[in-house]
């Protein structure tokens, strides 16, 4: 009889809620990971940084597990089929996993939990990827918050009670000896799951105190290494959110605030799954997007003639990362200057970002478009020149990504700023003021 820990977006051994509980169950624990065919087949580009990141982390996990005499079982297929064959092979009593709040994941887990239950196996799920989930931070009337500021206030209040209980890491004890070992310890290669290796550097996973110390001064300047670059690690759970919150409390309230945004958008996605395809604020369903495909292509390729916008898009295309300030500027430019539906931009980011996370990306896009929870007011249209002046005065970041800026080979602006600004305000005003 064995228990299974099903790794998903929690790719670490230490301070992992479900794994901790699995190991305490007393059964030998077989750790598994499933490359989900449903998700991978949707990725048209077979060189994918995310898949490669996961694969890389699985290899690291497997090496770490070897120290405890254990092995990671990696399968490829639809989760249902994989579970059917696992049940044929092993005598499983319990399955442990950490909760995921994306609609696809929730449905998948429900199907698997029901299937397991029909075979007499319990599926036990835990909170691990956020500090507060679902209904843990709600308004006095029990309804979910839809504005960040009051949510964050309540979040902080709750964090401080019970002697820091909510951000205590799970103890790291010798329970690891309960791991189950398979006869073979090789894991599937990227090629075996239909992908190719590409050259990419992944951000390091440690929390750097010097970055947190200066975070509030440096965080908005893309030419400076002023933010943690930990987003991909939060995305795949290679670092623990509890440890991050401890560091935030100790070194940078501003940084901690970003981690609250992360919880906030996960909570929003959980309570309002319609945001995946719909405006959070449904009155904007009547907004008349222009959706010009050539302009969209120019934006994607970093050829709008607005250096700060193009620099951001080129950084994204080349590295899979974009600084937060640039995410705000490029998203605002697409939705306001070009009046292109935020869903187009969101999809593009979803294909390209190494740290792509449905909740944060959707939240960020709807914020920029003015259709979301804490939306940018519609009359607030980022001015690319002012943004450059404020955040990249010496053009250090811009010149890195747009080296042809002063050579005569750079395209003219795709649209005049003043004209575009007025056009956007009119389109939004029609709805906001009902004119
Ligand atoms: P830091 O500044 O060091 O912040 C620490 C952590 O806090 C981040 O790693 C991230 O996990 C979290 N965080 C920071 N800002 C936000 C935010 N606004 N919302 C939610 N979580 C936040 N973040 C993603 O992780 N994945 C996405 O797909 C994503 N898409 C975005 C799209 C748009 C249009 C916008 C405006 C923002 C998006 N963000 C997304 C949020 C933010 O830009 C990135 O988290 C941040 O740039 C990552 O860099 P960092 O790790 O150095 O962040």
Automatic annotation (TrEMBL):
FAD binds at residues 215, 227-231, 255, 258-265, 355-357. GO terms for biological process: nucleobase-containing compound metabolic process; response to light stimulus; response to stress. Its cofactor is FAD; (6R)-5,10-methylene-5,6,7,8-tetrahydrofolate. Pfam families: DNA_photolyase, FAD_binding_7. Its EC number is 4.1.99.3. Keywords: Chromophore, FAD, Flavoprotein, Lyase. Binds 1 FAD per subunit. Residues 1-131 form the Photolyase/cryptochrome alpha/beta domain. InterPro entries: Crypto/Photolyase_FAD-like_sf (IPR036134), Crypto/Photolyase_N_sf (IPR036155), Cryptochr/Photolyase_FAD-bd (IPR005101), Cryptochrome/DNA_photolyase_1 (IPR002081), DNA_photolyase_1_CS_C (IPR018394), DNA_photolyase_N (IPR006050), Rossmann-like_a/b/a_fold (IPR014729). Belongs to the DNA photolyase family. PANTHER family: CRYPTOCHROME, CRYPTOCHROME CIRCADIAN CLOCK 5 ISOFORM X1. This is Deoxyribodipyrimidine photo-lyase. It comes from Rapidithrix thailandica.
């Amino acid at each position: 009889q064995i228990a299974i820990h099903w790794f998903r977006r929690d790719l670490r051994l230490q301070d992992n809620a479900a794994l901790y509980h699995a190991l305490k169950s007393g059964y030998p624990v077989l750790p598994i990971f499933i490359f989900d065919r449903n998700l991978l087949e949707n990725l048209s580009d077979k060189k994918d940084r995310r898949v490669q990141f996961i694969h890389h982390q699985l290899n690291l996990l497997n090496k770490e597990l070897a120290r405890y005499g254990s092995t990671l079982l990696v399968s490829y297929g639809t989760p249902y089929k994989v579970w059917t064959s696992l049940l044929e092979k092993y005598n499983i009593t319990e399955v442990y996993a950490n909760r995921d709040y994306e609609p696809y994941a929730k449905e998948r887990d429900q199907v698997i939990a029901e299937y397991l239950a029909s075979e007499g196996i319990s599926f036990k799920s835990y909170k691990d990827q956020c500090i507060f989930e679902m209904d843990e931070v709600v308004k006095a009337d029990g309804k979910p918050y839809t504005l960040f500021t009051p949510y964050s206030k309540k979040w902080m209040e709750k964090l401080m009670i019970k002697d820091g209980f909510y951000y205590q890491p799970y103890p790291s004890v010798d329970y690891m000896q309960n791991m189950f070992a398979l006869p073979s310890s090789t894991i599937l290669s990227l090629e075996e799951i239909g992908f190719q290796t590409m050259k990419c550097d992944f951000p390091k996973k440690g929390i750097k105190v010097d970055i947190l110390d200066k975070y509030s001064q440096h965080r908005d300047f893309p030419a400076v290494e002023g933010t943690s670059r930990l987003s991909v690690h939060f995305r795949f759970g290679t670092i623990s959110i509890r440890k991050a919150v401890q560091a935030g409390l100790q070194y940078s309230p501003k940084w901690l605030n970003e981690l609250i945004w992360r919880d906030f958008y996960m909570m929003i996605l959980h309570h309002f799954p319609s945001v995946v395809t719909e405006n959070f604020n449904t009155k904007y369903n009547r907004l008349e997007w222009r959706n010009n495909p050539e302009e969209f292509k120019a934006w994607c390729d970093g050829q709008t003639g607005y250096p700060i916008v193009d620099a951001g898009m080129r950084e994204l295309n080349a590295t899979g990362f974009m600084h937060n300030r640039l995410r705000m500027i490029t998203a605002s430019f697409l939705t306001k200057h070009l009046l292109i539906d935020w869903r187009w931009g969101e999809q593009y980011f979803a294909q390209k970002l190494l740290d792509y996370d449905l909740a944060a990306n959707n939240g960020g896009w709807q914020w920029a478009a003015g259709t979301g929870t804490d939306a940018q007011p519609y009359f607030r249209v980022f001015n690319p020149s002012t943004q450059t002046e404020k955040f990249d005065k010496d053009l250090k970041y811009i010149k890195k990504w747009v080296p042809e800026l002063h050579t005569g080979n750079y395209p003219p602006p795709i649209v005049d700023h003043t004209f575009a600004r007025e056009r956007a305000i009119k389109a939004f005003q029609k709805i906001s003021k009902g004119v």
